[in-house]
């Protein structure tokens, strides 16, 4: 092989090496990074929604809050519809057009289940579409009666509130 | 004559080799500079992202701190609206500027639905004819901001009621 040919091959190798390094660097720089704080922030928000919800006064000029009404509903199921409507009104106002399911359980029995109609038939463990992020929060409403409230919200990463 | 020609040819060859070496060094330096440029721009971007993350964490912590502030708190995880009404951070600007940094903090009543929308609560229109309170507005407004919100119970001591509220922090970067 002539000397000039060897030098051209060497130059080509150097160019390929430089291009590879530049491409790898660009890939690292331009790679979209996932915000690691979003899931944590959403988990905090979802728990704050549940805590605020049960503390909200049920009716104006009364000292009865939603937690008391849930407790009453756990003893008398006929009262549940009113509590359900009230909670639905609040969550619709707070979560606006988000997809969500709220389930209030006594032990393993579902006391109240609400959310947009398209969501109600879905499984609580996996209610979100593939492209959506599921955030789940739960609180103990009453220790003695073992009443739990579980809220699952599906978002596309824009935040719950 | 022949010796002179040989000498001239050798000189010419040496010059070419020297030039070749200079070019190689020049290209090497350019490559090193390009590498440094990419490395530093990458590092700078990382530092900026880390800074933004820390600001976000700061804002999340601030939300909890604000709810727990004795000036406006009414116990565990609740805000007394009368206390917020009378809180004036400008009275102790240095302290509150240090505490709230460059964050605008507002609290909005969501439920029961207010009779009016987007009306700031002051002593004259509280509690019925307003729907939001301002905790801190001593901020230097910049075009880049991040908004963080959390739900919080709002206590109305006059009728001993709790409303569903949202605390909103606007972090100006």
What is shown here, in short?
The complex is a heterodimer of chains A (161) and B (173). By secondary structure, chain A is of the alpha+beta class.
Structure overview:
The complex is a heterodimer of chains A (161) and B (173). Chain A has two domains: 1-32; 35-155, no CATH class. The radius of gyration of chain A is 27 Å and the shape is rod-shaped. By secondary structure, chain A is of the alpha+beta class. Chain A has helices at 3-30, 37-55, 66-75, 80-95, 117-120; strands at residues 99-106, 109-114, 133-142, 147-155. Chain A contains five helices and four strands; from the N terminus they run ααααββαββ. Chain B has one domain (51-172). The N and C termini of chain B lie far apart (78 Å). The interface between A and B is medium-sized, with 31 and 32 residues.
Let me know the average pLDDT of chain B.
86
* Lateral arrangement of strands in the main beta sheet of chain A: 2-1-4-3
Q: What's the total count of β strands of chain A? A: 4
Low-confidence stretches of chain A: none
What is the number of beta strands of chain B?
Answer: 5
Structural class of chain B: alpha+beta
Low-confidence stretches of chain B: none
Order of helices and strands of chain B: HEHHEEEE
The helix content of chain A is 40-55%
Shape of chain B: rod-shaped
The number of helical elements of chain A comes to 5
In spatial order, strands of the major sheet of chain B run 1-4-5-2-3
Strand content of chain B: 15-25%
Strand residue percentage of chain A: 15-25%
Tell me the Rg of chain B in angstroms.
Answer: 32 Å
**Which outline of chain A best applies?**
rod-shaped
